[in-house]
Amino acid sequence: AGEPWEPPHPAITHILSETYGIMVYQEQVMQIAQDMAGYSLGAADLLRRAMGKKIRSEMAAQREIFAKGATERGVDAAKAGEVFDLMEKFADYGFNKSHAAAYALVSYQTAWLKANHTVAFLAASMTLDLDKTDKLASHMQECSRIGIPVLPPDINRSGAVFLVEIMDDGTPAIRFALAAVKRVGATAMQALVAARNATGPFASVADFAHRVDPKLLNKMMVENLAKAGAFDRMEPNRAKLVTGAEVIMRAAQEAAERRADPTADMFGTGAFGNGAGPVPLRLKPMQDWPQLEKLGYEAEAVGFHLSAHPLDTYKDVLQRLDVTPFVAVADKARRGSATLRLAGTVVATKERPTRTGSRMCWVTLSDQTGSFEVTLFSEVLNRSRDLLSEGMAVVVTVEARVENDNLRLTANALEGLEKAAQNVGQGVRLWLEDLAAVEPIRALLDREGRGKGRVVVIARTGEGQEVEMALPGKFNVSPRMMQAMKVFPGVADVVPV
Q1: According to DSSP H, which parts of 232-389 are helical?
Q2: What is the pTM of this model?
Q3: What share of the chain is helix, strand, coil (3-state, %, to 5)?
């Protein structure tokens, strides 16, 4: 039979009996106003509208009318105020009865699907929000929370939409959709997947160029697919593919022309030689991007980070800066208002004017544990506007507090994480296996300038020994600098100290 319940006042028991004492429907609020405070039907509807639109001045006037009408009918003034407070709280979630019933049914159905077919449900939800970066990021966070792997886009495994894929160990996962990569287009990706499915997976980037329809693909699409990591299994050097996107498109165009007119290149002088199939593309050899740069381009192409989070590179710096992971913020705030230092990459911003004419901004940030929103008022916003571009890594000092079970984060200061990293005095030890690395390292240190970090170089000699030398002075050592050093030829290892 369930637990016993009590209405806020005996006079409205009959109104709330079907919902066990809780106001759920707008019709109930209107009936309470009529029965308890003597409202007419029209006046009760005005009260409903004022609550729905949350008009403060109108609500204050309605409170007086309700209290006066209720006390005239023998209701204690304090109890009348309590009931009105419940009615006002109801306005945050209430609907009319017909809508509420439909929403309840849909809520039950989707909850059942998520509970019993979790991976398929989330894949379908992500497909529904395929072009909405902020909602996709929220779905990604939910997948992370409940332990569902989201696999990166793959030109040979992804669909145009999000798909369920069973990994080698039997774990169900979600494969990222090709059409969710920015500026590639759903129609083009559907055609690409159809071409792949018709004749089998692409054997190489050259095979991809040989088989795709260049009318449905352009240079920017190839660049964004490469930045997102869709070609990683065939060519892990993303910088090489982005730089060579024009070469890939030219090869695709030549292949299409040959298919249209096989006699156009009788002597095999074209890109693929006498119709014998694709030949390797002449892509310019080059170093791949450092990890942070690669993640930056990935976020540019997808809207958030897939393969890793940029803050992973700043692990030691975040410890030195005493940064709190977002997952731990709520517990600290519940113990009382707290001033904390958080770090994250900028996901989205919403700027609005205030009543006084100044500007304020809500900034969505992401760290390894989740995404969160920080409010910036005009003074902090004006100082920090150049740090609010998408993908920028920042450190923000916030006032964290919990109000009505909602976490509120208000920024006191904002700083670029790279700049903050240069001020913590972090040093670096470099192991060299070839002296060819000396000149690019010297150029990098000159470019970054002096700072607070020591640089120690360890060279390996031909006899298997190591010679260690601390460079004179101090430098602007940062994780970005260390990532750049790692890709120099001749550098064996880079370790922060």
Answers
A1: 238-243, 245-260, 291-302, 315-320, 329-334, 378-384
A2: 0.72
A3: 50, 20, 35
